[in-house]
Amino acid sequence: MDKTAPKPDYDAAVSVRVQADDFDITREIATLSEGRRDVGAIVTFTGLCRDEDGRLSALELEHYPGMAEAEIGRIAEEAAARWPLTGLTVIHRFGRIAPGANIVLVVAASRHRRAAFEAADFLMDFLKTRAPFWKKEHLAEGAESGWVEAKAADDSDAARWVKN
Amino acid sequence: MKIRYFAWVRERVGLEEEEIELPAGVASVSELMAWLAARDEGYAAAFAEPEVIRVALDQFHVEHEAPLGGASEVAFFPPMTGG
After folding, report:
1. A61 contact partners, CB below 8 Å, separation of at least 6
2. Per CATH, is B2-77 categorized as 3.10.20.30?
3. What residues of chain B score a pLDDT lower than 70?
4. Which residue segments constitute the domains of chain A, with CATH numbers given?
5. Do A127 and B82 touch (CB under 8 A)?
């Protein structure tokens, strides 16, 4: 993630989108396999809004326009340089999101499953700790309950990927 | 220099962004945070625990020791909670 590092060379088609609108998971999967015969594995991760056992009416996702796309792009390029992917798509939503609705999507395609699983896992760990998004909770009773606090477990998840 | 604030840092400062002239003697991110914290109560509340604040210079994450250099945009925000 060093900004002075040379641009990594990789073949994967990397697509990063930050948007208010929902996404179509089936269509995003199809985009990474259409017209190709070399893709053997596609792994998707979808993050959804939980209601925390009925406590929340919605999450409000704030982001840093420009940097959100750039930072996810840097993480995606690192994943594409580290694993032999054929394609990688990352979509993150912002704005008000209701329980049950999608927040984030990662689609990783490769010749073999291991690279696709690992790249998707890596992408999510770094997205959570480095992509500039913040969640605010809206309570079911109508009040705002404040900002979600970052979890130490997210930092330790990201630290798993540091190469010795 | 443009300064941007996000999430509870933005709420406490009371601004999304502002333009400032860097005062003499403010050369690093930590010096800028200390200078901002002394402006009024809102800034003081935002930067009360400077160690938890994350910083980006021209949309790249940096540490608090980083020199401001020729950056045109600095952003202050809490630890991130996306995904």
Report:
1. A93, A94, A95, A96, A97, A103, A133, A134, A135, A136, B82
2. yes
3. none
4. 13-159 (3.90.1170.40)
5. yes
